[in-house]
Amino acid sequence: MSAQDRPSAPRDLKCEYRSSPLAIDETQPHLFWKMSDSRRGAVQSAYRVMVASSPDLLKNGHPNIWDSGKTQSNQSIHVEYGGPPLGSRDRCFWQVQTWDGNDEPSPPTNIQSWEMGLLSDGDWSAQWIAMVEGSDRAPAPVHYLRKEFTVDKPIARARLYATALGVYDVNIDGSKVGDHLLAPGWTDYTQRALYQTYDVTDQLVIGENAIGARLAVGWYTGPLTWTNQRNVFGEPPPLLLLQLEIEADDGSISRIVSDDSWTCKLGPIIHSELYEGEKHDARLEMPGWDLPEYDESAWSKVDLVDTPNIAVTSELNPPIRITGEIRPVSITEISPGIFIFDMGQNMVGVCRLRVTGDAGTEITMRFAEVLDRDRSGNVYTDNLRGAACTDTYICAGAGLETFEPAFTYHGFRYVEITGFPGTPDVSTLTGRIFHSDMPQTGMIETSSEVVNRTFENLMWSCRGNHHSSPTDCPQRDERMGWTGDAQVFCRTACFTHDMTGFYGKFILDMLDAQTEDGYFSDVAPHCYEVDRLANPGAAGWADAGILIPWAYYLAYGDRRLIERNYDDMARYVDTLARQNPNGLWLEGRNNDFGDWVPAGEDSDKDMFATLYYLYSTKLLAKMSHLVGKDERAAEYDALVESVRSAFNARYLLDGHYLNPTQTLISMALVLGVPPDGHLESIIQDLADDVESRGWHLSTGFHGTRFIVQALSENGHHAAAVRLAVNRDYPSWGYQIGNGATTIWERWNGDVGDPYMNSLNHYAFGSVGEWMFRHLAGIQADPEEPGFKRFSVAPNICGPDQELNQVAATFESLHGRIVSEWQVTSNLVKLNVEIPANTSAQVVLPNRDFDKITESGLELKDAQGIGNIRDENGAVVCDIESGRYSIICR
Ligand code: BGC
User: Fold this and answer.
1) Which ligand 1 atom is at minimum distance from the Cα of 541?
2) What does the pLDDT look like over 593-603, one tens digit per residue?
3) Atom 3 of ligand 1, residue of closest alpha carbon
4) What are the Cα distances from residue 523, in Å, to 111, 188, 476, 547, 594?
5) Cβ of 474 below 6 Å from ligand 1
6) What is the pTM of this model?
7) Closest atom of ligand 1 relative to the 593 alpha carbon
8) 415-427 tens-digit pLDDT
9) Of all helices (H) and strands (E), which one includes residue 721?
């Protein structure tokens, strides 16, 4: 056997979706790997997972914690750790070996690790501390807290565990710990805070050390929502909980914890809040405050506060951090001393300022998405509503100074600078992009410029609206976790990014916000209305509590979220059913936003709500099957049927829906609502409506996700494509033609209505799902989720169409999936890549078997392709892993 016939070692080992994570609080963590085997038909026939307490033990063949032994299985994701119970802080080193289809073993992988978190309250000896004095100031200043300590033995490892009610960062001996921003992120702090774990082994020295922490109000007590309400989750001041654990070479452990020995003081950050922005007076800098041997005579003792009665759990989601930089593309002095910087892209994050000025020179930066309509050339800030979005820096007079705010962020393309000493240039400002750092997993490129730019815009809006929670917008006084927006976009996001950690956390936020009787909410974490947790969400918003876990299951194959939260999800549907015994969702509808901001007429809200009721029930039925609750599944299946019949009985007349908006027809079609015999007329109504509008859509947040799917799935793909490549109103192309570099909240961008005209709202970006599922044709198979098995069923357009070429890649948990097609006058070329240890069904755009070849061979002779059949006039086949180059004449 030659070396190339042997399987190589698997790659991308992950524990709980992360590489070598530090604080796992799943007691039976799930392990993942990808096979590296590009041979056609490569499969894993067995695996062996070896876990040890040190890398050396593994190297010497002693997996002393757990050895799965050679296990006959093709499972390579969600392999559950099966060793003895793990305790807090336990360190596990692991590697895996796999066997291929010929029972040939791979070499064992490199060694990876995971570390258990602090699993019980008793693991925390730290106390919650705060600086109480003067904490009622608004906008709120940043509190500085510090503590010196001695390390007297050589250090084997050191971990810093920290969280806050508020937002914090920590320095050790003058340098920042980790790269998190706005940690610990946003949760409902009356119920939960997430702690971060940092490896600080290399940041400590033997001898004197110091920790300095900064605390700002963030989402905890800073203004939230359009009412700019303060103290939604508690009262000031912000609180810190911090525990540094130092393990010496001799195994002894010492702990430096937040307690009453810490001191505190106000510092140079005069105020910092999310909507307001940050003001920094560099004359008040306290050099050395985070170093040992600092004179802290002017500092006061911190206050100990009562331990909040909340869960403190390990951070699941990727941290918010800087992910890129942008240089301004132009600077205009619109009137003496007022400079407008154009960053060339509507971005989210902050700006780093470089300036040389006399002490006391005050530079002010205001941020905006567009310039004023009156063409004064100045920034348009009306759409920011109550959010000041202003950063101010006061120079210390110390030569070249740099300033970058620490606890705020803005959504902007333009920056107005006033008070700058002299003339700024492009090096004065650098745009620093920041957001929750979910790894990118998907990419699409096509022959259509409009589609490509739409994809880029939705990627920018996706990044710009994931800051610990999925937000509606990043600029105005809102930035809330609107569940409806998140739900329409989640299938797109699961293609473009690895959403495992992010949605894992958001699903908990939604459960934390669920009402007593089971309604999910409009926003999570819940932050508006007096009685936040008795505030049921609207149809299409509340349903996110079911739709997002389902999307998560399809994309990542994780049953745990369904198993663990099944009763809560069922509670929602059961409440709807109890309140609406006649099958239509007419009662118990809060807020009732409907198909939000449509391009055309509104859709009937009773119909809209009932379709979502049916949608949630349908998914709950599937989930019930999945977790083996067959009786419940049968009940929900029956409920789906009764909602469907009630809907058709009430709203279908002579084969046409009573309120035949594009949104309602599309939803009905995608959800399989029309009765047999009426399907054709209903499809035709949709197609006619699109045509009557000159091939335009009339949909809002919800309908937009459905219409492109409904057209593509019902014989009108060409119409869906026209919607996607349109350049006139209303369309994505219209936004692009009018300068959009992100997805807008309204189809027309309506800068005339300052109350609701965000230019960075990802909801209409839900078309990304259609790009992956219908243009590229990559479809998850619910029977084998996590893309263990899937379809590649591209919808191919004609050669003379703008869209005659599509290339999509998607990095699934099993490896890279590629679907790439190109049409010329007489042939379609299709390249597909199927990851090792998975299989796919491919649907080819040709009816004649004998006109299809793969790598020059007739389809039937091609290796890795089987079960070739005719399905509804299309050639369908099953293919094994590998790369295929198919030509259909
Ligand atoms: C938000 C939306 C949200 C909506 C509720 C708006 O203010 O920006 O994105 O879903 O309210 O309809």
Assistant:
1) 10
2) 999 999 999 99
3) 482
4) 41, 11, 16, 15, 15
5) no
6) 0.97
7) 12
8) 999 999 999 999 9
9) helix 717-725
